Sequence to fold (173 residues):
Amino acid sequence: MTLRTILIHPDPRLKKVCDPVADITDELRVLADDMLETMYKAPGIGLAAPQVGVTSRLIVLDCVKEDGEEPHPHIMFNPEVLQASDERNVYEEGCLSIPDQYAEVERPSEVTVRWLDRDGHERQQTFDGLWATCVQHEIDHLNGVLFIDYLKPLKRQMITRKMQKLKRERARA
Fold:
């Protein structure tokens, strides 16, 4: 397994709409495994392919956060929301591509998602709570949408400026 470099906003690759995965190859399975490893190490609960510079419709997530609890990783190729509840939830979201920045985002509290697993089998599941928020956040990445895009312009600009400063500092280090 290889740890991948996570892109930091602003980066044009984070704003691209990703291409559907036509064929799940061994190369894509390795990418998915690398993404899980990278996500756990970061640490995070979700990661989308564009965050590691790959414009394919692939996300990984695992919202099990309790120590001692068995991990429950999901690898999703071509995930799509089939149904979203009218009921809404607000979670304080963060993003591995926007480190140390958090904001409340409102999303449907329950979503039914269809995807292909690592073996190419079609899967479908209804998610709620943190899982629902996470899967929607990661699918947004595949459409070039970041959680800060839901914020008011001033707050979004403030976070973007902080990320530009962070990137300059990292480039000098």
The beta strands are 46-48, 58-61, 74-84, 88-95, 98-108, 110-116, 122-128. The mean pLDDT is 96.
